[in-house]
Amino acid sequence: MNQTATRVFIVDDEDSVRNALARLLRASGYQVECFDSAEAFLERADLTSMPACLVLDLQMPGMTGLDVQRKLDQLVPIVFLTGHGDISSSVDAMKGGAVDFLPKPVRDSLLIAAVDSALARACVESRQRHEREEIEERMRHLTRREREVMELVVTGRLNKQVASDLGAAEKTIKIHRARVMEKMKARSIVELVRLVQKAGVCTADEE
C-alpha cells in the first residue's frame, strides 16, 4: 500500500494525545491531518480526494465518537480510541463497522496495525466506488430501450425472448444488444452481468 496516496485523520480533544499520535504515524510514513473536535473534522476534512481512515476518540465534548460514526455511515473506516471505554460502546462501535476499538494509552504496534487494516479497507472500498461510478457513467449513455434490453439480457434471455417481452422484432433487439455491449465496454454477456451486479442494478427477474 502506498502511504503517500492515503491519509489518516486523527480526532481527539486532548492536545497531548493528538500530537503524540500524529508524531508516531508521521514517523511511520503516513500522511496525517488532525482535528481537536468532531465538529471541526466534519466541517473541514476532505473525505473524497484519496482513501483515508479515521483514528477517533470515543468520548469528546460535544459530538462523541459514536455520533461521528453514525454521521459518516461507513464512509471512512474508523479506529476508535478511548480512555473511558465500556463493553456497550465497543459493541456499538463494532456493529457500526469500526475496524478496531483500542484503549488509551494505545501500544504503538497495535495502533499501526489497526491503521494499516483500516487503510487497506479504505483502498478496496475506494476502488470499488470508483469502478461503480465508472459503470454508472457508461449506463447513462444507454437509451431507455437499450437499458431495458440490457436488464433482460443479463437474466439469460435469448434475443427472441427479449423481443417477445418488449414487443419488438428480434433483428431490432440484436442491434440494441450490440449497442449495449459497445457502450458498456463488455466483451461477453458474462462480463456484462458482472458490470450490472457491481453497479447494483435491479434486473427484470428481481423486480
From TrEMBL:
One Pfam family in the UniProt entry: Response_reg
Top-level division of the source organism's lineage: Bacteria
Protein's UniProt keywords contain Coiled coil: yes
Record's signal peptide: none
Alphabetical list of InterPro entries matching this protein: CheY-like_superfamily, Sig_transdc_resp-reg_C-effctor, Sig_transdc_resp-reg_receiver, Tscrpt_reg_LuxR_C, WH-like_DNA-bd_sf
Domain HTH luxR-type per the UniProt entry, residue ranges: 135-200
Residues with PTM 4-aspartylphosphate: D57
Domain (Response regulatory) ranges: 7-119
Keywords annotated in UniProt: Coiled coil, DNA-binding, Phosphoprotein, Transcription, Transcription regulation
Coiled-coil stretches noted in the UniProt entry, renumbered to this chain: 125-152
Name of this protein: Response regulator
Organism: Paraburkholderia translucens
